[in-house]
Amino acid sequence: MSAHNSSKPATKVVSGGRRKDWTWPVVNPPIWRASTHLYETTQDLRRGHPNEDGHFHYGRRGSPTQWALAEALTELEPGAYGTLLYPSGVSAISGALLGVLKAGDVLLMTDNVYEPSRDLTRTLLADFNIETRFFDPLDVDGFADCFCPKTAAVLFEAPGSLTLEMCDVPKLAAIARANGALSLIDNTWAGPLGFTPLTHGCDITIMALTKHVGGHSDLMMGSVAAGEELYKRLRIKSQALGMVVSPDDAALALRGLRTMHVRLQHSTATALKLAEWLEQRPEVARVMCPMLPGAPGHDLWARDFTGGCGLFSFLLKGADVQAQSRFIDALELFGIGYSWGGFESLATPFEPSRARSATSWPPAGVEREDRFGIRLAIGLEDPDDLQSDLAQAFEKMDLK
Ligand SMILES: *Cc1c(COP(=O)(O)O)cnc(C)c1O
């Protein structure tokens, strides 16, 4: 699809990866369900095939269904040479970290990181003698002091997917580079339509395809994209870890990808409308939504990002855990569950004090009694219906 390299992202979402020799004469690549790839002769088998993308060899190296998805994602990611697929977002994160770190290295991780990313530093990386230190993503001056000669990589998440702090990615990535460390970013929130990390100083971009790309709450997958040298290094490690996604799941992800642009536009617009409305509610202490003018991090978002999504949070004013639960339990249109990026709206409670080490919760400017939060993942429902649902849940929450 190189003829379309100059297309806009909305077009690439539709055209990416649809090589004629993988699809013709149908629109989508067929589901190549295969472990065995056959060779014509023993001579052919002995000669083998180059260990490169797009060559049949054996099921673990994928088939056109997976190749088409990886290629479509690469086309959406300026600066990327290739994209690796992993069976979940977490395996993409651990795969990327294991791919660039070695024993004795120090990893810096943003303090507002997705909690399973924090957990794997203790349950996985520590066993390989990789030490992790957490940093405050909003403290640019302090960040430079976090480096030591052993610091090999930094993991960012912007904004944090629970509390939505927006850090200055270009500035922090430049500091990392000046200190000889690689910058990895979990870009699940914005995805490539909202933020292109490799053009903002990051070396590796990671996504949970489970969220916006899947889009229908029925799929788990992750991706890692990078420039040529790093991509090739990561590919060797990913093959060593035996990472492969099923062709059925790849086909589902491709199906989700084709509508991602319109879904994100809709959920972003609804989220913004609800965030504005929540800001006026007496029960709300703070809205955490960088797309909202005046909200923390909005300036950085407006400078670096071209889009957002339906995920944002707010803090209840003077609530306790019971009030927080009453609010969520009263919601009728919002499911109670983890994940986001699906067509249906979700709500989850949070109070992340115990998952912070370099920062404190609640953040500066928020009273301690306002520390209980609600995270909303906005889907494709009518915005007015969602707003009415939130309004009736505030009534039932019955804050004294
Ligand atoms: C969900 C999520 C992940 C992990 O993805 P899974 O597919 O659930 O393993 C990673 N990062 C962020 C920001 C997420 O929201």
Overall description:
One of its GO terms (biological process) is L-cysteine catabolic process to pyruvate. InterPro entries: Cys/Met-Metab_PyrdxlP-dep_enz, Cys_b_lyase_bac, PyrdxlP-dep_Trfase, PyrdxlP-dep_Trfase_major, PyrdxlP-dep_Trfase_small. Belongs to the trans-sulfuration enzymes family. Pfam families: Cys_Met_Meta_PP (PF01053). GO terms for molecular function: cysteine-S-conjugate beta-lyase activity; pyridoxal phosphate binding. This protein is α/β, with parallel strands linked by helices and 400 residues long. It folds into 2 domains: 9-255, Aspartate Aminotransferase, domain 2, CATH 3.40.640; 259-397, Aspartate Aminotransferase, domain 1. Helices cover 36% and strands 15% of the residues. It is built from 15 helices and 12 strands. The chain has a 7-stranded mixed beta sheet with strand order 1-7-6-5-4-2-3. The chain has a 5-stranded mixed beta sheet with strand order 8-9-12-11-10, covered by helices on one side. Helix 8 links the parallel strand 4 and strand 5 (182-186). Bound molecules: pyridoxal-5'-phosphate. Pyridoxal-5'-phosphate is lined by residues 88-90, 114, 157, 161, 186, 188, 208, 210-211, 220, 222, 339. Pyridoxal-5'-phosphate (PLP) binds next to helix 5.
How would you concisely characterize the structure shown here?
The chain has 400 residues and is of the alpha/beta class. It contains 15 helices and twelve strands.
Integer tally of domains: 2
In helices, the fraction of residues equals 25-40%
Sketch the topology as an H/E string, one letter per element.
HHHHEHEHEHEHEHEEHHHEHEHEEEH
Q: Are any ligands bound, and if so which?
A: pyridoxal-5'-phosphate
Described by strand count, sense and barrel closure, the largest sheet is: 7 strands, mixed
The percent range for strand residues is 15-25%
Q: What is the CATH domain class of the largest domain?
A: Alpha Beta
What's the CATH H-level homologous superfamily of the largest domain?
Type I PLP-dependent aspartate aminotransferase-like (Major domain)
Keywords: Lyase, Pyridoxal phosphate
Cofactor: pyridoxal 5'-phosphate
Protein name: Cystathionine beta-lyase
Catalytic activity: L,L-cystathionine + H2O = L-homocysteine + pyruvate + NH4(+)
